[in-house]
Amino acid sequence: MTSSENEVILDIKNISKRFGGTRALRGVNLAVRKGEVHALLGENGAGKSTLMNIIMGLIKADEGEILFEGKPFHVSGPSIAIRNGISMIHQELNVEPFLTVAENIFLKREHTYGNSPFLNQTRTNNEAKKILQSFGLDINPKVAMSKLTVAQAQMIEIIKAVSYNSRLIIMDEPTSSLDSEETVRLMDTIKNLQEQGVSIIYISHRLEEIFDICDVASVFRDGQYIDTRDLKDVTKDELIALMVGHKVGQLFPKTDVVIGDVVFRVENFTGKKFHDISFKVRSGEILGFSGLVGAGRSETMCAIFGLDKKSTGRVFYKDEEWHITSPKKAIEYGMAMVSEDRKNYGLVLKRSIKENIALPNLNLFMKGLFLDQKKERKSVKSISRQLSVKSAGLEVPAYSLSGGNQQKVVLSKWLMTKPKVLILDEPTRGIDVGAKSEIHRLMSKLAGEGIAIILISSELPEVMGMSDRILVFSEGRISGEVNRKDILDGTVTEEGVLGLAFGQKLENGGKE
Q: What CA–CA distance (Å, rounded) separates 187 from 374?
């Protein structure tokens, strides 16, 4: 914290907000000090995003007031908030895909020739190049945003927010798509901003990051402010208990199940971003894929599932070759894939919960040319109850749900297909501790039913806590394999797995 640590830059007083009959915020008070990195914690639906949207002028509070730098703060939209010194990095990317990187960075503050309306593209590109280089990013400012990876696009959003020279920056899950190297780069940026007196509100479900970078943490629960704690004086378990209102059991509740014979086999898969990938999965086994973002994990599984093209490779289930040419064919064979990008690939956000769950299962509800809506509703209601989807009803749109409940809807629709092989790509990305624990329990339950599960995760504690075996990817190839036994007895540590991801050999199990 800086020398101005006692100076409150943002003072939120008695903020309340209703959406229909739902009280999203109830008399919330929060103080953020100058030069402070202030964590905001709470389960999905706790009110964090609602409060941030009120600060940015996206929605209006019903009661209360906000003071910024000691003065009343009233804004009617993000552009006005930015002009007044507050910017925000959203968890869900807010980019213009068909504009260039440079155009995205300087959107709505474009460089022109003098006072003319004509854009100075050369200056825009040169300025963007300087900013990118200051962050150590080798990205062409002239390339379209649609050509970037999710991680690269996330970094551009971060750069854009920082380039406004704001006195307060709100960061909502900024590392959810970043690999370890990019996360370190962001942490360095946050420290530099803090030294300049910039305040950061940091929202994340990754408690390791919270303790690494933040000074204090404020906890929200059910739309209410609960407490603010100095992170030097609190433990992770104490914060989790504050978030959920009670003690939470083991975060990775993997149970030992009977692991059977090899049922799923991939041989010599090669594509644009992966090379000569071969592996086997047994019945009841959870096979983890670890590695840095861009190492080829998701790309491999997208090709296996028929989403992307491959150059070579074969897929077998119990010695029967599956000729997968499209996701439709993969589903027919008995595969299901929960994508890392649930907003774009997992859900039709404007459609109801019922429609989303039923979509890949319509063949189950057809009576000739007609849909048996009664049977559809009964089946959807049953599966959504099994997964504890919390909502006001099956007809509410998917976009109205919290991240954890959206993910449960995605899982529900795939589980209804009764898959033989289940691919989970970042299944707990951006969801709260409680929902994570529920999904982890579900994974163990499904493994116990004999389903072969492939878990792709960028969170080392998750992939190490939930996997029976881990394949580590590095630069498009499998660089090593780790067994659960070696993790449990301490032979292999997180440092060892991370070393494999960087292409190093596993020496002394990764122990120091």
A: 52
The torsion of the CA quartet 54, 58, 60, 65, rounded to 10 degrees, works out to 30
pLDDT of 248: 45
Q: What is the pLDDT of residues 334-353, one digit of tens each?
A: 999 998 877 777 888 889 99
Beta bridge partners of 100: 144
DSSP collapsed to 3 states, 462-491: HHHHHCCEEEEEECCEEEEEEEHHHHHCCC
CB 410 within 8 A of CB 347: yes
**Which residues of the chain fall below pLDDT 70?**
1-6, 21, 44-45, 91-93, 244, 246-251, 506-512
The tokens describing 247, both together, are: 């003690």
Q: 91 is written with which tokens?
A: 């968890």
Q: Using CA atoms, how far apart are residues 473 and 327, in angstroms rounded to an integer?
A: 24
Q: Are 62 and 26 in contact (CB under 8 A)?
A: no
Residue 239 confidence (pLDDT) = 85
Beta strand spans in 90-186 (E): 168-172
* Distances from the Cα of 304 to the Cα of 72, 83, 263, 308, 434, angstroms: 55, 47, 15, 8, 31
C-beta atoms surrounding 141 within 10 Å: 23
CA distance 181 to 176: 13
**pLDDT per residue over 282-331, tens digit each?**
999 999 999 877 789 999 999 999 999 999 999 999 989 999 999 999 99
- Written as one letter, the residue type at 236 is K
- 44 within 8 A of 431, measured Cβ to Cβ: yes
What is d(CA 60, CA 107) in angstroms, rounded to the nearest whole number? 25
Whole-number Å distance between alpha carbons of 175 and 154: 8
Q: Beta-carbon neighbour count of residue 77 at 10 Å?
A: 10
In sequence order, what are the beta bridge partners of 397?
Answer: 352
Question: Distance between CA atoms of 206 and 188, rounded to whole angstroms?
Answer: 17
Q: What is the pLDDT of residue 2?
A: 43
